[in-house]
């Protein structure tokens, strides 16, 4: 039987933090805008308290989540069990991108592994204020074994260096696919 809660319980915190793969969904307000779903991994998710979570936002090919949050704040995070016991956890909330020069950035980034937080590809921390927490069975999700992290994003950022990552962001992360503002070009 699924749960409907207004905050995270300790067992759900443990479940979310144990998942090596999870997903983020956001969408613009425009009816013809593109809904975005992004897979997330690494050790990039943290629970701040029972109604607040955050994740390290690393440079990618798009900037949809940051753009959608700036426009309307809506975000959903989905965690799936791939182990013996099936379960889904959805976290619904209002999010914001805390950027490198924002007051809260240093406090939030200290919650993440220093090796990950020090990457040149870190562009923000997405902080989410939760208003709905649900669980469901997840019976249709396959059982799979986790093999390892890929390490490719870290290698890419190291090869590019800070200047190269900033140039990539300038080329690829200043607007969303729907034309919403993204990162400010340097």
Question: In words, what does this structure look like?
Answer:
This protein has one domain (4-172): Roll (Pnp Oxidase, Chain A). It has helices at 10-18, 64-71, 105-109, 114-117, 152-172, and strands at residues 4-5, 22-26, 36-40, 45-49, 52-58, 74-80, 88-99, 122-136. The mean pLDDT is 95. It is globular and about 50 Å long. Strands 1, 2, 3, 4, 5, 6, 7 and 8 form an 8-stranded antiparallel sheet that branches. It is an alpha+beta fold. It has 5 helices and 8 strands; from the N terminus they run βαββββαββααβα.
Note the run of SSEs as H and E. EHEEEEHEEHHEH
Structural category:
alpha+beta
Count every beta strand, where a strand is a DSSP E run of 2 or more residues: 8
Major sheet: 8 strands, antiparallel
Globular, elongated, flat, extended or rod-shaped: what is the shape? globular
CATH class assignment: Mainly Beta
Helix fraction?
Answer: 25-40%
Number of domains: 1
Look up the CATH topology: Pnp Oxidase, Chain A
CATH superfamily, by name, is Electron Transport, Fmn-binding Protein, Chain A
Which spans have pLDDT < 50 for at least 5 consecutive residues? none
Question: Termini, distance in Å?
Answer: 50 Å
Lay out the secondary structure.
Layout lengths: L3 E2 L4 H9 L3 E5 L9 E5 L4 E5 L2 E7 L5 H8 L2 E7 L7 E12 L5 H5 L4 H4 L4 E15 L15 H21 L14
Features:
alpha+beta, globular, single chain, Pnp Oxidase, Chain A, 8 strands, eight-stranded antiparallel sheet, 186 residues, 31% strand
Characterize this entry briefly:
The chain has helices at about 10-20, 65-70, 105-110, 115, 150-170; strands at about 5, 20-25, 35-40, 45-50, 50-60, 75-80, 90-100, 120-135.
